[in-house]
Amino acid sequence: MSDIAKIEVGGKTYEFPIVEGTENEHAINISKLRGASGGLITIDPGYKNTGSCISEVTFLDGEKGILRYRGYSIENLAEKADFLEVAYLLIFGELPNEEELNKFHDDIKKNSIVDDDIKKILDAFPKTAHPMGVLSSLTSALTAFNSSSVDVNSEEKMYNSIVKILGKFPVLVAWTMRKKQGLPLDYGDSSLGYVENLLKMMFKKPNEEYQNNPIITDALDKLLILHADHEQNCSTSTVRIVGSSHAGLFASISSGISALWGPLHGGANQAVLEMLAGIQEDGGDTEKYMAKAKDKSDPFRLMGFGHRVYKNFDPRAKIIKVAANEVLEDLGVEDPILDIARALEKEALEDDYFVARKLYPNVDFYSGIIYRAMGIPTEMFTVMFALGRLPGWIAQWREMRLNKEPIGRPRQIYTGKNLRPFVSVEKR
Ligand code: SDX
């Protein structure tokens, strides 16, 4: 491919360099377009054809169903690594050796205490509050208790805020769930592994010794790895653009949580379970819901299907589908919802409408089934997604800051009223 792109407008030809990535992707660098053309810009609602940055963190190929973190395949990492190793890899670019991993975990443990006054903020929420709204608020509130984590313009200060959020976030996740359940807020046990400690904080009964279930711990560790990053998705792009104003890491992460909450994005895992439960209550008639999904006059969409980038199987969905079978079998859980999911998937994969639009199951289609088998409440599913995505948000935010990227400020094409005179209220 040529290294120059030519755009001809109004009889004039403009030339722009073509950027080539390490995986044979190409982009036209139009950063000089407006200046060179006296005002021309491009427009691309939803950024379906527009790259926002160059990045070394994650590579995915939607047509081939490939996903790699820093060059390692998601299949390899899900099978051989643990979540904290993957977090280190995403954030710092290399898999840690034993000493690096132990120091990273120790630094996280040292920063895993949350100021008790955060509980006063938590108390102010009604039990009906959605956990994602609570988590986003508490994450932003961390800024008030960790002011040194706002103006982080050195790698050392960045590292300190990174281990703080990695230490405190699981506590906020557990407290958000337990507050809704009316259970005491627990700090877990820092002698445990990262995921095991999270599960203990979430599930320890006040009147019982906590028994770790390695099946659940291992399954959750794998799920968190599978959610850890996904290049410039909606919530990660949000974290990058908020961070580009030099808002602190916690404020940027808080904005990412809000973006992830939407049912078209991370909120889909909750929406999938609610959809499957609805189909089950309605007699399990999957064909009826397939018809609704294809009916343009019906706002219903098949949640957990389709993807902005994957026009093939989401590689994470493939791994989670196998894990769902294994976890339910290991836990001895018979869940009719899984049968409905399998029936729906089979129908969709054979349906012309879905095949023509390359709509395949995505990461959210099966994950909720595993969370449910673990005893995680449906409203907490997207919170689990947020915990998984935390290292990716951090990695992308750190890359953006270290690359000294300019503040994100898109242009627009104005289509409103032309200049008109003010009319006083008595004359309107
Ligand atoms: C995540 O970006 C990421 O990487 C996200 C994520 C990550 O890890 O960060 O992978 C996580 O968000 C996964 C996606 C979870 N969302 C859902 O499962 C919600 C259901 N899916 C859809 O809403 C939709 O597929 C999106 C939002 C995921 C993608 O939407 P696009 O790319 O904007 O595609 P589109 O809406 O333009 O759809 C193209 C066509 C349309 O029909 P036509 O106008 O061509 O006739 O496909 C149809 C859509 O109506 N379509 C669906 C559908 N998804 C798309 N029809 C029925 N059911 C669906 N789920």
What descriptors fit this protein?
three-stranded antiparallel sheet, mainly alpha, binds s-citryldethia Coenzyme A, 18 helices, 52% helix, 428 residues
Largest sheet, in brief, is: 3 strands, antiparallel
Query: Spans of 5+ residues with little confidence (pLDDT < 50)?
Result: none
The spatial strand order of the largest sheet comes to: 1-2-3
Euclidean distance between termini CA atoms: 60 Å
- Please, what is the oligomeric state? single chain
Shape designation: globular
- Strand elements, count: 6
Q: Considering DSSP H and I runs of 4 or more, what fraction of the residues is helical?
A: 40-55%
Order of helices and strands: EEEHEEEHHHHHHHHHHHHHHHHH
Number of helices: 18
Give the distinct bound molecules: s-citryldethia Coenzyme A
Mean pLDDT: 96
Strand content: 5-15%
Structural class: mainly alpha
Structure description:
The chain is mainly alpha-helical and 428 residues long. It has 18 helices and 6 strands. It has helices at 33-37, 74-80, 83-92, 98-110, 118-123, 131-145, 155-181, 194-203, 214-226, 234-243, 249-261, 268-281, 286-294, 315-331, 336-349, 352-356, 363-373, 381-402; strands at 4-9, 12-20, 26-28, 58-61, 66-69, 72-73. A 3-stranded antiparallel beta sheet has the order 1-2-3. A hairpin with a 2-residue loop joins strand 1 and strand 2. Helix 2 packs antiparallel against helix 9 (214-226), helix 10 (234-243) runs antiparallel to helix 11 and helix 12 packs across helix 15 (336-349). The termini are far apart. The mean pLDDT is 96. The structure holds s-citryldethia Coenzyme A. The site of s-citryldethia Coenzyme A (SDX) has 22 residues, from helix 17. S-citryldethia Coenzyme A binds at residues 46, 230, 233, 264-266, 268, 293, 301-309, 357, 359, 362-364.
